[in-house]
Amino acid sequence: MNVTVRWEGVYPALLTPFTADDQVDLPLFEKNLYAQLEAGVHGFIIGGSLGEASTLLNHEKMAMLPSALAVCAGKVPVLINIAEQATRQAIACAQEAEANGADGLMLLPPMRYPADARETVTFFKSVAKGTSLPIMIYNNPYDYKIMTTVAMFEELAELPNIQAVKESTRDLTNVTRMRNAFGDRFKLMGGVDTLALEALLLGCDGWVGGLVDAFPNETVAIYELAKAGQIAEALDIYRWFMPLLELDIHPKLVQYIKLAAQATGIGSEHVRAPRLPLVGAEREQVLSIIETALAKRPALTSVN
């Protein structure tokens, strides 16, 4: 039976760990999940951009689903990312995810083709009509060059299973723009680590995180403190976190965050080609950011 997706709280965009011989490392995947559950995250997303969706085979993505469902044991929902290019393939992937027990979907536009508004809305609607699972639209024009506008969401609001938005426009005014247009019709999840606290304070319901894969306790603490109105305490952790959060907005975010997860003992730096592990001065620079943060890791404040 599916777990209800409430679209609130911290949802890690999960890393896909690989072995040295380029196989999905399910034991390490599960170790990371357990660490995040212990920290109190509220859901998981398999196979997103940070999960190296562009190089994952569909059967690999689907192989992680039963592992995640077994680890979560109904405690939190497990979502799969849909990033296929052809509408027919996206529908088929959504239906396969549903048949195999996924609780919800994150849905990207067809990125390799710069679809116009009519095409993008038709794509989203077609996938939504092909499944009963709840859907979060990933709105990231910065990286994927397609903006899902308020006018487009007015059309998408007709479909009840399109329920949430991963807000990654990097324009914080869009949070208010969406609230003004739709009230609570769509749940809003901040999707940019370096704007996460600001997005929560502007009214986002949750945070789809990247550095949470390495630092789950700190991520959950910021969310809980912000929602409890303990802004000063949240800000203290956020300021410490910022040099790490900036690793999320670089083209090599996968390598950077995997290196951080390795440093905290819940990941490895193995990536899938054409990505390559970091070397030389670049690796030393990123390690320095991580090690400096670990040396100054703050004591976490409890929610009053």
From TrEMBL:
Protein name, per record: Dihydrodipicolinate synthase family protein
- Tell me if Lyase is a UniProt keyword of this record: yes
Which family does this protein fall into? Answer: Belongs to the DapA family.
* Entries under SMART domains matching the protein: DHDPS
Q: Where are the transmembrane segments?
A: none
Report keywords, A-Z: Lyase
**Which species is listed as the source?**
Spirosoma soli
